[in-house]
Amino acid sequence: MKKLIPLTFATALLLGGVVSPASASSPRYDDYQAGNGNYSDQQDESNYIHNRVHHYRSHQPKVNQEPQDFAVAPDTSTTAPAPQANPAPQDSAAAAPDVSTPAPTQPAPTNSSASKADGIVNYALSLVGKARYGHTNPSTLTFDCSGFTYYVFQKYGVDLHSRSPQGQAKVGVPVSKSQLQKGDLVFFNNSHKPLGHVGIYIGNNKIVHAANSQSDIKISDLNGSWYQQNYATARRVL
């Protein structure tokens, strides 16, 4: 006689809980529970267990279980963007060149000043042979050096602010000898004092001035020995 494997309640639990006392209604199961133990053989026991498992599983209610979604829900909260500095507006046109320049020490005359310089020079030249050298008296056309320059420039609305060579040397801006232009004032030292004489530059390295009682109003060349040795400075007042 083959040895039968007893089917206990624990064995049913080990089989996945598929056989329970409440659901086992087969006579063969009842016989074993009653202690009959009348299984014919081991195969019958195996078949019996298999049939009960199948019966149990086929009668289990099906539970619809939604698949778990492990995707992380998107964060709908918005973060305020970091403030950005307003870019400086861009001009499509090219940047204008910097035309600011320091005031020149030797300014070039403008058209108006050049025309005024021509008028001053022409008027001064017109007095050669007419005006005399002496104590300044415009009514008699008598002038010393600074009286002559003051009178001529005043005719064209230019105030030299002084009737002395030293005072007139403070007007306008300095200009080098190599950059002299018509209408510039040219100063010389003499035996009496520094900046003791003044004349009007007329171009071509020449001046017109009230020279002395022997020459009166005359044109002199700056290349002359006395003018080279005593040249002091020049000023541009136009």
Structure notes:
The chain is an alpha+beta fold and 238 residues long. It has two domains: 9-58, no CATH class; 111-236, endopeptidase fold (from Nostoc punctiforme), CATH 3.90.1720. Helices cover 28% and strands 15% of the residues. It contains seven helices and eight strands, in the order H-H-H-H-E-E-H-H-E-E-E-E-E-H-E. The strands form two sheets. Strands 3-8-4-5-6-7 form a six-stranded antiparallel β-sheet. The chain has a two-stranded parallel sheet with strand order 1-2. It is rod-shaped, with a radius of gyration of 64 Å.
SSE map:
Blueprint: H1 9-14, H2 27-33, H3 42-58, H4 111-126, E1 132-133, E2 142-143, H5 145-155, H6 165-168, E3 173-174, E4 185-188, E5 197-203, E6 206-212, E7 216-221, H7 225-230, E8 231-236
Parallel strand pairs: 1-2
Antiparallel strand pairs: 3-8, 4-5, 4-8, 5-6, 6-7
Short characterization:
By secondary structure, this protein is an alpha+beta fold. It contains seven helices and eight strands.
In whole angstroms, how far apart are the ends? 148 Å
Number of strands: 8
Largest sheet entry: 6 strands, antiparallel
Give start-end ranges of low-pLDDT stretches: 1-5, 9-40, 63-74, 85-106
Shape: rod-shaped
